[in-house]
Design brief:
about 270 residues, binds adenosine-5'-triphosphate, 9 helices
Length: about 270
């Protein structure tokens, strides 16, 4: 018998938030290497906050995230809103080439091979011929393709995508899903915030259902049950950002390696 491989990401009683107000709390669990995880939950459930925490953009208020097998900085993160200033006169090629900054450095020039890799990444997202176009002239779907091309060049073992399909045409969504499935086949670990549950059922083997705290984490078919979704909704409705404290009691659930912390507690942002 082989011992179980170490987790790629270990989350230990994690609390993340803003100005010491928890947005996600009591999150614990292991994510194995090569997992393809959909992060789902109601609006304001803390999905983006979790990705920011994993990306290192938000420091935990409590608990910790450990990624034993990940070299420092070896993750690629696609935030929800475009971080690209559309009015900035920069070409699609240059924006995508930023994906190589770790190997090129801030002021380095690109080698011939690196320039070819940029063109290959653009071809892989169906954007050949757009190299010289100003980034601000792209449609929403084209811009998202370019952002995926940049991400590909980062060649990271861990990829975090925050609502990559929001406000994107269905053909582009299909193409982006195929790229994600390709990264999964290559053995990369991918966490994606997704709103469309059909999309999740069809393509994502593992699911984390969040509602400020973990509701369920495991195989998608066991997480996406009417019970679990109703539970997530109830938790989200019981939440009030301005309320002084919290006493939410959860019954234990069948699938949930992550909710062993369900109990009475006091946090400075729940109501009853
Ligand atoms: N920069 C911030 N400063 C203060 N509070 C924030 C900030 N960003 C998010 N929040 C709050 O944290 C909570 C969780 O937000 P988050 O964006 O993580 O939720 P989400 O699940 O991604 O929601 P959605 O599906 O609507 O994008 C919300 O109450 C939100 O208002």
């Amino acid at each position: 018998m082989h011992p179980a491989p170490p987790p790629f990401i270990r989350i230990e009683n994690l609390t993340l938030g803003y100005d010491r107000h928890p947005a996600v709390h009591h999150l614990s669990g292991d994510i194995p290497a090569g997992a393809l995880v959909a992060v789902i939950g109601p609006n304001g459930a803390g999905k983006s906050t979790l990705l920011k925490g994993l990306a290192g953009e938000l420091r935990p208020i409590g608990g910790r995230i450990v990624m034993p097998g990940l070299p420092p900085g070896a993750l690629a993160y696609l935030p929800q809103r475009g971080e690209i200033d559309h009015s900035f006169p920069v070409s699609v090629f240059d924006v995508v080439a930023m994906g190589l900054w770790r190997e090129v450095g801030a002021f380095g020039g690109l080698s011939r091979t690196q320039r070819q890799r940029v063109r290959d990444a653009l071809a892989a997202v169906g954007m050949s011929g757009f190299e010289a176009r100003p980034i601000g002239s792209l449609s929403g779907g084209q811009l998202q393709r370019a952002r995926f091309a940049r991400l590909m060049l980062q060649d990271a073992p861990l990829i975090l995508l925050d609502e990559p399909f929001a406000a994107i045409d269905s053909r582009t969504v299909d193409d982006l899903v195929q790229l994600i499935l390709g990264w999964h086949r290559e053995g990369r670990t991918v966490l994606t915030v997704v709103h469309d549950l059909e999309q999740v059922r069809r393509h994502f083997p593992t699911c984390l259902l969040l509602s400020r705290e973990p509701v369920a984490f495991g195989p998608t078919a066991q997480v996406l049950t009417p019970d679990m979704l109703a539970r997530a909704r109830r938790l989200s409705e019981a939440f009030d950002d301005d309320a002084p404290e919290c006493h939410i009691e959860l019954p234990p659930t069948a699938v949930s390696p992550t909710d062993e912390h369900a109990h009475h507690h006091n946090h400075a942002s729940h109501r009853h």
